[in-house]
Design brief:
single chain, mainly alpha, Lysozyme, 5 helices, 6% strand, secreted
Length: 140
């Protein structure tokens, strides 16, 4: 019953950004070549982290991941629950779960810049790194 109610509530699943819309947004926001990665790398990351869902959420135990880029509460945002959160992006984690992804983009770029790549995202390491990712941008 709870699963059904969760699916039936308007907005409960969040907005899913289409693959090609995400490609366009990322290109417009300077992701091509940023930290030596392609837009295809970022689209692959988003697909495997959040399935393009702006309201994606994952509980990791002591911390949680939020939004389309699955930004972690231990280091990057404040959810009011994670003890010792560094909040390096200086924002509330709830901002990463709305349909406006401008703040998500700013924080994701900060994460990638500090890491000099996309290695903080397990999904990128496990599903995207070292692979041919042309299909993620093909037709867009």
């Amino acid at each position: 019953l709870l699963v059904f109610l969760g699916l039936a509530l308007p907005g409960a699943q969040g907005k899913r950004i289409s693959r090609c819309d995400l490609v366009k947004i990322l290109r417009q926001n300077g992701f091509e070549g940023f930290v030596g990665k392609t837009v295809a790398d970022w689209v692959c990351l988003v697909q495997h982290e959040s399935s393009y869902n702006t309201r994606a959420f994952n509980n990791n135990g002591p911390s949680r991941d939020y939004g389309i880029f699955q930004i972690n509460s231990q280091y990057w945002c404040d959810d009011g629950r994670t003890r010792g959160s560094k909040n390096a992006c200086r924002t509330s984690c709830s901002k990463f779960q709305d349909d406006n992804i401008k703040d998500d983009i700013q924080c994701a770029k900060k994460i990638a810049q500090e890491a000099k790549g996309l290695t903080p995202w397990y999904a990128w390491r496990d599903h995207c790194r070292g692979r041919n990712l042309n299909s993620y941008v093909r037709g867009c």
